[in-house]
Amino acid sequence: MRDLHRRAALSVRATGALAVVLALGARLGGAWADEPPPVVVFAAVSLSQAFGALESEFRRDHPERRAVFNFEGSSRLVHQIHEGMRADVFASADETNMESARADGALAGPPRIFARNTLVIAVQPGNPKGIRGLADLGRPGLTVALCAPDVPAGRYARQAFAKAGVAVPEASQELDVRAALVKVMVGEADAAIVYATDVRTAGDRVTAVALPPEHDVVARYPIAVLKDAQNPAAARAFVDFVLGPTGQAVLGRFGFLAP
Amino acid sequence: MTRRRAPVPRPAVALAVLGAALFVLPLVGLVARTPWTALASALGSPEAMAALRLSLVCSLSATAVSVVLGLPLAWVQARAAFPGRALVRALTMLPIVLPPVVGGVALLTAFGRRGLVGRWLDEALGVRLGFTTAGAVLAETFVAMPFFVLAVEAALRGVDTRLEDAARTLGAGRWRVFRLVTLPLAAPAVGAGALLCWARALGEFGATITFAGNMPGRTQTLPLAVYVALESRPEAGIALSLVLLVLAVAVLVGLRGRWLGAP
Predict the structure, then answer these.
(1) HEC readout, B5-68
(2) Which terminus of chain A faces fewer neighbouring Cβ atoms within 10 Å, N or C?
(3) Which residues of B touch A183 (CB under 8 A)?
């Protein structure tokens, strides 16, 4: 008898849970049915803050559209696109990775440069080690974080070392520029080579040491609609928005240079 | 005569096949995509060899540390009665369910240069664990030791205490009883636990890259090398993945009779 009661109570509870799940499903289903699919943007990690802000502006301009992002190192994004991950737009931090995507037949049209960036050395707040330039990064006892050679920030950093005539120091090979910056922010690394825009978002947790102009490398950011785009019209709208006055203003606010 | 078992209903068999396919297909894919002709050159590259060597050094060191510290820990947890034992046991098991990246962040807050202990290590002794092989070993130990403790503790609980009591009545001290009676009885579990711990340490990725970084020759172990290589030289990444797969299969074969051979 008692068992029967318990079973009845259990089935009531199960029915209740089922109802909640169904209601939730219906709501989500409704939301999916009402709204057009979002524009899926694969973007370089260094764009994460700026594109996040840009998205809300994009929604204001296009109330029926949204954009969702996958922020990774550009080289990882190329790999993901190659392996068949569905995306509508690709925004790379360098032209080399965009070119790989193009050679792979992934682009729907020619890429367009939408922003530029420069490099800095991110060091501990107040620069306790007195790092003044690239040559100082080879000093013994200094721990340095760079990006891996295929990650745009890693390639640019190696170009800068070449320009300065300095050997690339022994360094951790981070998989994206954010990871390199975080190593300095948490105090594990004394220095990392990152973009000028990255240290702006890090606030007072790192200090930026500028590179002399003759050593600096200008990063050029291309953007393109992908051939695989589910929603090419919306993808083009997003790219136009990034290149348009509002998109450029937002990027400028985050420290990116105009193309 | 064996008893006839009730047959499994067809829908359950169909789901079981689907479930098995989920495990089998990725392995088939990996083997199918392996560049067999370029395998030797992919594995023979200096970076791959360095990663392989480092992986062996780190995982074996992590296993050694796990045995040295984990055996007493399992012993205490299995036998000693003290307040908060349940909590200690739960905390020991935590790394098994914790995302390894979170483990890496936690290690930073404890042993990083600004961490609780790490700050002191750096200032007083000049010892830094980040970006060092010792840091990679620490990360692997953190993630893998629970597997060893789990296996050994269960075995120690299963040892018949009457045998230990008998040895005690014959005049053997506690250490002697543990060494000559308890440990031999738990030996298979100690071996299996160490093997499982080593396999987990070998495959460690998240905690290592978060806590120790990705430094070729120092902290770039095989899984990290796979992740990096996939972007630049996918065939090298797949070849290295195959090495890890073969090692994992070897571990399972080594454990056969303990888990695989279960009726």
Answers:
(1) CCCCCHHHHHHHHHHHHHHHHHHHHHHHHCCCCCHHHHHHCHHHHHHHHHHHHHHHHHHHHHHH
(2) N
(3) 130, 213
Same domain, A96 and A49: yes
Could you tell me the residue range of the domain that residue B80 belongs to?
56-219
Residue B48 belongs to a domain:
no
Note whether B51 and B215 are within 8 A (CB): no
Residues in chain B within 8 Å Cβ distance of A186 = 108, 112-114
pLDDT per residue over B5-61, tens digit each? 888 999 999 999 999 999 999 999 988 988 888 788 888 888 889 999 999 999 999
Whole-complex ipTM: 0.74
Domain that holds residue A166: 119-210
User: What's phi and psi for A84, nearest 5 deg?
Assistant: 100, 15
Contact list, B122 vs chain A (CB under 8 Å) = none
Per the domain annotation, does A145 fall within a domain?
Answer: yes
* Contact (CB<8Å) B131/A172: yes
Burial of A99 (0-12, 13-18, 19+ CB in 10 A): middle
Phi, psi at residue A65, to the nearest 5°? -120, 150
Q: Are B227 and A186 inside 8 Å of each other by CB? A: no
Q: Are residues A231 and A108 in the same domain?
A: yes
Residue at B11 is within a domain:
no
Q: Is B254 on the interface with A (CB under 8 A)?
A: no
